Amino acid sequence: DDICDDEDACNTGAEGDCTYAEENYDCDGNCTADVDCAGACGGSAAEDCDGDCDGDATNDTFGICGGDGTLQGAIDSASDGDTILVPSGTYTESISITKTINVMCDGDCTIDATGVAGSGVVIAATGATLDGFTIVGDDTMYAGVVVTPTCVNVTVSNNTIYGMTLSNPGNDSPLSYGILAYGSSSSEMPMGSIFS
């Protein structure tokens, strides 16, 4: 009779053919590799950013799990008091800031709403900041930044705004604006705001 003489076998020295442990297991059936999120010994399944095992959710440019990579998406996901550091790039969209947040360019950022909306940015918030952007316009836009009457302590700073040539559709004015801050009465207008 044959005797198993392979030191790597589970039955070294025993009669009969050698038997071996399955891959990633020892001879007693214990897993010797890492167990993945699906419970597979030596498996490759991993949790995505949403915590789903073997899911496909990923972080967008702003680090938002399952985000769409837009500046508005980052603003919508932010909470009051947050600062959004916007990576360099051109954002072809019009944005609306309605929270007490800081939206700050971290590099060379352009908001290009040409052909998208009448303004690049609308702010309707208390204590919001927009800082460091280039906001480009064309003949489809009447304002780069609109600061609404309900705003308090808004800061619009270090921005380069140009190219808006559409007359304001909200009144009879033939003007277009880089920054349009307006009030609807003496008690309802942007108060304590800084434009630099």
Task: Characterise the protein shown here.
By secondary structure, the protein is mainly beta. The chain is built from 1 helix and 10 strands; from the N terminus they run αββββββββββ. It has one helix at 71-77, and strands spanning 83-91, 95-97, 102-112, 119-123, 129-136, 143-147, 155-157, 160-162, 177-181, 194-195. Strands 1, 3, 5, 7, 8 and 10 form a 6-stranded parallel β-sheet that branches. The radius of gyration is 30 Å and the shape is rod-shaped. The chain starts with 70 loop residues before the first helix and ends with a strand. The relative contact order is 0.09. The model has no long low-confidence stretch (mean pLDDT 93).
Which descriptors would you attach to this protein?
single chain; 196 residues; mainly beta; six-stranded parallel beta sheet; 10 strands
Give the helices and strands, then pairings.
Blueprint: H1 71-77, E1 83-91, E2 95-97, E3 102-112, E4 119-123, E5 129-136, E6 143-147, E7 155-157, E8 160-162, E9 177-181, E10 194-195
How many E strands? 10
Rg over alpha carbons? 30 Å
Low-confidence stretches: none
Question: Which range does the strand content fall in?
Answer: 25-35%
**In which range does the helix fraction lie?**
under 10%
**Overall 3D shape:** rod-shaped
The first-to-last residue Cα distance is 94 Å
Oligomer: single chain
Question: How many helix segments?
Answer: 1
* Run of helices and strands: HEEEEEEEEEE
Mean pLDDT: 93
Major β-sheet annotation: 6 strands, parallel
Based on secondary structure, the structural category is mainly beta
